[in-house]
């Protein structure tokens, strides 16, 4: 069949760990389940996916083996194939689902330590750099990049199979979606670290350009640098309204977003296709 016309990355729905980080002190990360809101988000994602598809599309799902991603996949497929409120053109038996361990979440170690120690680790990670910082007893984003690279190569080989679907859906995690795109589009470490997570059950859509065989990312990604600019503008506007004539020596308000130390030369973080 050739390359799929569309690749869709989906971050899992809201999990119990997203509502309460302390749960990771007693429940292994791979066993954390969805909340009631998460199940609702997964069902809604299935309806949104149905609106994106054409009736003759063939689908392959690849899902991280974590409980929250498998439950998200199940919820998406349940509503996608439902005949309510109208008959679905996507019967369940026509959809193939593959459990793919290389799409699992970044390994944050085993049971996580207390909140105070985790907060210290997150601050150290932010200062050191999210891509290269290796979690104790876990892995770095760079480690995750290595296994995603292997998955991308496997996926690319599968494109050549006669029965491969023309729509490929990857149900994974926030950081892993960013790592996948970083590898796919050869983005720099600096640009990766500027990217913010997508929302739960948000779609990242790559569409095939048949003229050159390349995939175009349809989303405008959110970055920390854009958020800082927006908050600077917001704070400046508030100050201007409160005091149209700024006092001598005036300095703008901070945006309250932690800023890491810059190491070495400043590099331009521009994504490349």
TrEMBL record:
Alphabetized Pfam families for the sequence: His_Phos_1
UniProt cross-references to InterPro entries, sorted A to Z: His_Pase_superF_clade-1, His_PPase_superfam, PGM-Related
Gene3D superfamilies registered for this protein in UniProt: Phosphoglycerate mutase-like
SUPFAM superfamilies membership: Phosphoglycerate mutase-like
Name of protein: Histidine phosphatase superfamily clade-1
Native organism: Penicillium fimorum
